C-alpha cells in the first residue's frame, strides 16, 4: 500500500507492507535514523515521536495509521541552521544523557509534556516519562533537564523545521 506522511515538514511517500511500523517507515523510508528501536515489547519509549502533536511510541503505530498525518521526529526539532531546540539544549546542559540511545525518545516525550504542562513538578515529570526507559543515567539528570527546559519556557510550538 502507498503511504504518505508529512515528516518534519516534508512529504514522505512510499510503498509499504500493511504491517510496516511507523518507526521502520521513519528509519527506512524517510531515512531518519535518530528514532531508535530499543525493545519489542512497547515498553522502552526509544521510538517516541509526535504524531499530530501527540507523543506516540512509533513501534506501536502502523505506517498506514500515519497516512495523511504529521509526524515530528527529534531531527525536526533543530532549526535548519542547526540551532538546537531548548529541550535539546537543556538535556546537554544538565547532562541528561550518557550513551544517548534513549535520548531522542526522552526529548520528544519532554516536548510533548511541556506542550500540555509548561511548569510540571518533579513528580509530574517522572510520571510523564514513565514510559521512557534509560539504562544509564538513573533519571536524575534527565528530570533536572526537563525542569530546566520548563524554566526556560520551552514548548512544543517553539521550534519547527526551517
Ligand atoms: S521500541 Fe518502541 S517502545 Fe521500545
Ligand atoms: S543515556 Fe543510555 S539509555 Fe539513556
Which helices and strands, and how do they pair?
Layout: E1 2-7, E2 10-15, H1 22-29, E3 48-51, E4 54-57, E5 70-72, H2 86-93, H3 103-116, H4 122-128, H5 140-151
This protein binds FE2/S2 (inorganic) cluster (2 copies).
What would you say this structure looks like, in words?
- This protein is an alpha+beta fold and 162 residues long.
- It folds into 2 domains: 2-76, Ubiquitin-like (UB roll) (Roll); 86-155, [2Fe-2S]-binding domain (DNA polymerase, domain 1, Orthogonal Bundle), CATH 1.10.150.120.
- It is 30% helix and 14% strand.
- A 5-stranded mixed β-sheet has the order 2-1-5-3-4, with helices on both faces.
- The longest helix has 14 residues, at 103-116.
- The protein is globular, with a radius of gyration of 15 Å.
- The mean pLDDT is 94.
- The chain binds FE2/S2 (inorganic) cluster (2 copies).
- One FE2/S2 (inorganic) cluster (FES) is lined by residues 37-39, 42-47, 57, 59.
Number of continuous helical runs: 5
Low-pLDDT stretches: none
Order of helices and strands: EEHEEEHHHH
What's the Cα radius of gyration?
A: 15 Å
CATH T-level topology of the largest domain? Ubiquitin-like (UB roll)
Any idea what the shape is?
A: globular
Query: Care to count the β-strands?
Result: 5
Q: CATH class of the largest domain, anyone? A: Alpha Beta
- Which structural class should the secondary elements be placed in? alpha+beta
Across the major sheet, the strand order is 2-1-5-3-4
Give the fraction of residues assigned to helices: 25-40%
SS strand fraction: 5-15%
Q: How many structural domains? A: 2
Mean pLDDT over the residues: 94
CATH superfamily of the largest domain: Beta-grasp domain
Largest sheet: 5 strands, mixed
CATH architectural group of the largest domain: Roll
End-to-end Cα distance, whole Å, is 30 Å
Chemical compounds bound to the protein: FE2/S2 (inorganic) cluster
